[in-house]
Amino acid sequence: MKSYSKRIFFFGIAISILFNALSQETEQYRLSLEQAVEMGLQNHQQLKISSAQVKASEEEVKVSKLQQLPSITLTANAFYLGDAVILDQDLAKVQTVDMPHFGNTFGIEAAQLLYKGGVVKKSIEMAELKQQLAELDFAGNEQEIKFLIVSNYLDIYKLINQIQVLEQNKVHAEQLLANVTKLYKEDMVTRNEVIRSELLIKNLEQSILTVKNNHAILSNQMSYALGLPNNIIIIPTEKIEDIVMIESQSYYTDLARQHPHLQSAEKNVEIAEKNVSIQKTNWVPSISAFGGYTMQRPITTSTPALDLYSNSWQVGLNLSFNLDNLFRTKRQVNLSKSQARITRESLTYTRQAIAIEINAAYVKYQEAKQQIALTDKSRALANENYDIVKNKYLHQLAITAEMTDASNAKLNAELEYANAVVKALFQYYNLLKATGTL
């Protein structure tokens, strides 16, 4: 018996140590919405990828500009030259001619493209357009990341509201249990009434546990986006205020002209049209200037061969044209025009999609504002009903089912109001996202 007691004692100590360790594993981290967005823009992995793509596009522009420079080739080689064997018409050996055995050459050549229908200039412009497109993609990703962080932040805010409402209702339920227990001891109610009150408290505790776990899960997800430790519990410090919006829907539609996705679609049209003009340069011959200098040893053009250096240089113009371009270029140009047509249709679709999104977001925000007023009225009625039923219940004028219904109605009304306030703020940010100005 004494050994069993010791085991129970040490088991209790172990449990207490475990709970202390678990409580130390997580810590609360308070931050405002502005801080969360700023940290997300600095640490989110997707934005790091987009930033690297922008830098890569900048390097592509620099590489394209190198086409304006001349190409210069320097060559040098050394070789062993064997004796020359002279054969007659029957391939019989006639004579062996001694040759200088060591040979080497040095040379330098330069070439500069003078004209090819402006292909170099257009290629540089194409690279610059792609750089601008990468920057717009980065801006678009920023909008997406901002909205993601705002959504998660408001979801956490909503969960905390739920926890507070559930805990407040638990306090009311515990007070009710105390009153019911007192009546039970006085033989004024049956044991069944006490059990119902206890079940209500257990249900609230289960709901609180579930919501707290959801809070921890969402905090862990946000920690990766914000560059924070993974064992924190994020506590929003932002004060949710009623946002007054006096602008008309047309104002937000005009505001969307600077939407990154719309600008990206416009930039894709420019890129496609530029590609058409680049393909058309294949109809034009290329003209380039060239020059070179060569020093070679030995001189084998004389008899006997001379173990001396031969120096020569040349400059001139080169005109070239690929004859297969006569039938290939037309197909390539037609393909480029088809691709340009696709980008123009995509631009129209993007405009329509943004307009639809703005209209939906605008309507939903107006609806969310109305929902606040409606849920506030419902909350007031539910609280009034709860107080009436509670008073009747304590005076044995209402049954437990009525009390449970009133409690559930009060809980749902308070949750709906708290969620409506957060939802209105979410819909406001969703409207800003739809315009590309979040």
Summarize, please.
With 438 residues, this protein is of the alpha+beta class. The chain has nine helices and eight strands.
List keywords for this structure.
single chain; 438 residues; Outer membrane efflux proteins (OEP); four-stranded antiparallel beta sheet; 9 helices; 67% helix; disordered N terminus
Plain-language structure description:
Helix content is 67%, strand content 15%. It is α+β, with helices and mostly antiparallel strands and 438 residues long. It has a domain at 244-285 and 324-438: Outer membrane efflux proteins (OEP). Strands 2-5-7-8 form a four-stranded antiparallel β-sheet, with no helix packed on it. Strands 1-6 form a two-stranded parallel sheet. The model is unreliable at 1-24 (pLDDT under 50).
Strand content: 15-25%
Q: In CATH terms, what is the architecture of the domain at 244-285 and 324-438?
A: Up-down Bundle
The average pLDDT value, as a whole number, equals 83
Order of helices and strands: HEHHEEEEHHEHHEEHH
Q: What share of the residues lie within helices? A: 55-70%
Total count of strands: 8
What is the CATH first-level class name of the domain at 244-285 and 324-438?
Mainly Alpha
CATH topology (level 3) name of the domain at 244-285 and 324-438: Outer membrane efflux proteins (OEP)
Give the strand order of the largest sheet, numbering strands 1, 2, ... along the chain.
Answer: 2-5-7-8
